[in-house]
Structures are given as structure tokens and as C-alpha cells.
Design goal:
The protein is α+β, with helices and mostly antiparallel strands. The protein has 15 helices and 18 strands. The chain has a seven-stranded mixed β-sheet with strand order 16-15-12-13-14-17-18. The chain has a four-stranded parallel β-sheet with strand order 6-5-4-7. Helix 2 crosses helix 3. It starts with 5 loop residues before the first strand and ends with a helix. The N terminus is likely disordered.
């Protein structure tokens, strides 16, 4: 483990690593805004929303993204650097060296994974220091991607999680089924590490379904899916495990009848700075990203985030997924995303403006005052709810989170919707 970096003068990007001083900014020192580099490996609109949010917080925002990303031409976007799927670490490193940011923020799972890989292969120096400053404990990313390791950590710290175990074979699954009380054996959930958006999740209703479900979640990525992602999204991540027939780690969890909830937090050196806690009223697709949420207060969810942030020494923006037991009302942690999630850009007033809180902590400046975008508790996330159902009543009943100030982003969403429909 390298020495803990001490970050001095965020506005200028200067680092101490051990006893060695690294001045890393090549920019004009008269520019006093914190420079943030967002990294995305796909063309999700969400990265554009984060660009806008960090710009509202007074940051100089640069972006690493695949060619054709809808955020390339936003008025809020500074320099844009190409993300190259065939040379991902090289392209991200080049963007960091060229932009000299004070903070790096991943916008999707693959971006965080590759930034963790970049940290692991880099020698001690300014690059490692920057990434450790941005994320905190370097082990947090790999731990969060392992569902079993995360729930084990939570359980050891007295946090509510569903009963579960790692599953390496059908024999392991049989033993787990036999160990459960009959009243709660079925249904249960099988999940593969590294999956998201409902992919890699199977709900098993009885013993007859178990072998096929285990084979499905534990199978290597389909070659057709890997090729499609490479050609359409320029995402080459699945090609190697697909060609090598690499199988993901699988875990089992008891199924808890309930509804989904989500908590997104901004952390700095193990402390939670700001949070957005919400119950999920609608999802874009089954077990996919939330499209309509109700903002709530949940002391149990906040305690979970505070405990894990302190335990892992987290910095940056992270998301926590919960299921709220319908019978007891108890939120149980089921997953952690060590990157910004789809509610992270929302500006909901003091203590609930994540980009502003994170930028203030990194720069040493006070959090800039900003009004909440709505006084209500219902939010329809654009474009997810509109894409799910253009006639959805939630678009009128809730605050519809449309980026009116960036017409190019709205147009890009409309074009993408038409393209998918055709």
C-alpha cells in the first residue's frame, strides 16, 4: 500500500507523495476553479447531467468519453478527450495527463473498474495520488464489485443484509438450500459479480429452476452480446472473458419481499458530506435503473452509508441499493456502486447537492448556496421515465428532471429514442 497522499492546493493540483512534491497542473495558475475530469465508457446521458451539475458548482469540467457522446457539445463541457475501447487505460491516462484535474469522477461501472486498474499498474507518483485522493481506499472498488465481500463486510459491522453465501458449484447451492429454514427457502436470488441493470440476476422460485438459473448467471458473456457491445458502444470489456470463457463469481441471497430504495452519497476521506435517499417507484426496466423516485429520510440507510464510508475510507460519489422489507419496513443493503449513480446530479438543497459538496471538500472552499430544483418529493428522471412511457402520468405528477438549459442534450435523447424504436 503506498503512502497516503496529502493533497495541497486543489486549485493548483499540487501533491505530496511521501516527502516528494509533485506540481501536476500545466494550466494557468490564475484559473482558480477546481478542475474535474469525468470518465465515461458509454454514451449514457447521465454523464452530461454530471457535467452540468459540477459546472453549476463552479468547477472547470472536462470529459473522457466515446466519440459521439451527447455531452461532447454541451456549453458546460470543457475539453473532451476520446475514450478508446481497444486501449482504455492508455486513453484515460492520456486524458488525465493532458487535463491535470484535481478530481476524477467515474460515471459508470466500467469506468471505475478501469480507473482502479490504472491505479494498480501505476508506480507511486502523482497519478496514483490523484486516484487515491478521488476514491479513497484503493480496495473499495474491488470490494464493492464482489457482492459476497460487500455483504460480509456489512454483516460484520452489524448492518442489515439478506442472508446469503458465495456459490461456486451446484453442490454449494444445494447445501445452501438445505441449510435454510423451509419457510424462507424459496424464492431466492442468484447474482453474478460485475453485472448491472438486471443482467446477471435470476429469481429462483423452486428447486426445479435452480440448475438452469445457476448455469445462466454463472455463464461467460455471450459472444454475440460482447460483439454487439464492442461494435455499437465501443465497449470491448466483454470480448476477453467471452473468448476465454471466463465465468463470473456468483452469490445467492434470500429473497426479501419488498420495494427498492437507493441512497447516493458524496464522501470525503471516510465521511459522508451529502446524500440523496429515495424509494424507487418505477424502474426503466426490471431491476434496471430507477425512472421515478420519492425522496425520503431513512436513518437506517444513512447509517449504513456512514458505516461503510468510514470503514473503507471512501471519497467521491457512491451509490447504495436497498430492498425495504414490506413486512418490517427494514431496509437491507443488497449492492454498492463505487461510482456516481443516476440521482447524483440532482440539486436538492443544503446537504443534498452531491457535486457541490464534493467540489467544496476537494477545493477547501465553502459549499456554494443553491436552491433545490423542487419543493416536492417526487422526481421523474429524464430521459428514463419518458423513454419507458412517453404518456406516463408521473411526467406531470412529479418534478420532471428535464435539462432545459441544454437543448442539445434533450435533442440527443430524442434521437436516441427514435433510433431504438426503429
Amino acid at each position: 500500500m503506498p503512502a497516503t497522499p496529502i493533497f495541497l492546493g486543489t486549485k493548483y493540483g499540487n501533491y505530496y507523495y511521501g516527502n516528494t512534491f509533485f506540481p501536476t497542473f500545466s494550466q494557468d495558475f490564475s484559473c482558480m476553479a477546481l478542475r474535474v475530469l469525468l470518465v465515461t465508457t458509454c454514451r449514457w446521458i447521465f454523464a452530461g447531467r454530471l457535467v452540468m451539475a459540477f459546472r453549476r458548482a463552479g468547477c472547470d469540467v472536462h470529459l473522457v468519453c466515446p466519440p459521439g457522446h451527447p455531452a461532447e457539445h454541451l456549453r458546460a463541457t470543457g475539453r473532451v478527450f476520446p475514450y478508446r475501447g481497444l486501449a482504455p487505460l492508455r486513453s484515460i491516462r492520456a486524458a488525465i495527463e493532458a487535463s491535470a484535474p484535481g478530481l476524477v469522477v467515474p460515471c459508470d461501472d466500467l469506468a471505475r473498474t478501469q480507473l482502479d486498474q490504472l491505479w494498480s499498474i501505476s508506480s507511486p507518483g502523482p497519478l496514483r495520488s490523484l486516484l487515491q485522493l478521488s476514491f479513497g481506499n484503493p480496495e473499495a472498488g474491488p470490494l464493492a464489485r464482489s457482492r459476497n465481500r460487500l455483504t460480509t463486510l456489512a454483516r460484520e459491522n452489524g448492518l442489515p443484509v439478506p442472508p446469503g453465501a458465495p456459490i461456486a458449484s451446484s453442490a454449494d447451492l444445494r447445501r445452501w438450500i438445505e441449510s435454510q429454514p423451509p419457510a424462507r427457502t424459496f424464492p431466492f436470488v442468484l447474482k453474478s459479480d460485475g453485472s448491472s441493470g438486471g443482467i446477471g440476476v435470476q429469481i429462483v422460485q423452486d428447486s426445479a429452476q435452480a440448475p438452469a438459473a445457476l448455469a445462466k448467471v454463472g455463464a461467460p458473456p455471450l459472444l454475440a452480446r460482447a460483439v454487439k457491445r464492442a461494435l455499437v458502444n465501443r465497449d470491448f470489456t466483454l470480448l476477453h472473458p467471452s473468448l476465454r470463457r471466463m465465468r463470473p463469481a456468483v452469490s445467492v441471497q434470500s429473497f426479501i419481499p419488498g420495494h427498492d430504495a437507493t441512497l447516493t452519497v458524496a464522501c470525503w476521506q471516510g465521511q459522508v458530506l451529502a446524500s440523496i435517499c429515495a424509494e424507487v417507484l418505477h424502474s426503466w426496466e426490471f431491476k434496471g435503473p430507477a425512472s421515478v423516485v420519492r425522496i425520503v429520510d431513512s436513518p437506517v440507510m444513512l447509517h449504513t452509508a456512514h458505516t461503510i464510508a468510514a470503514r473503507l475510507g471512501l471519497s467521491g460519489i457512491c451509490g447504495f441499493d436497498f430492498v425495504v422489507d414490506d413486512e418490517t419496513g427494514q431496509p437491507c443493503l443488497i449492492e454498492m456502486n463505487p461510482r456516481a449513480t443516476q440521482t447524483a446530479h440532482l440539486q436538492l438543497g443544503p446537504g443534498h447537492d452531491l457535486p457541490a459538496a464534493l467540489a467544496a471538500a476537494a477545493s477547501g472552499d465553502p459549499v456554494p448556496p443553491a436552491p433545490a430544483i423542487t419543493s416536492g418529493d417526487l422526481i421523474a428522471l429524464f430521459p428514463l421515465e419518458w423513454e419507458r412511457d412517453a404518456a406516463s402520468p408521473w411526467l406531470n405528477a412529479a418534478h420532471h428532471d428535464v435539462p432545459w438549459e441544454e437543448p442539445s442534450l434533450m435533442l440527443a435523447c430524442a434521437r436516441a429514442r427514435v433510433k431504438r424504436a426503429n
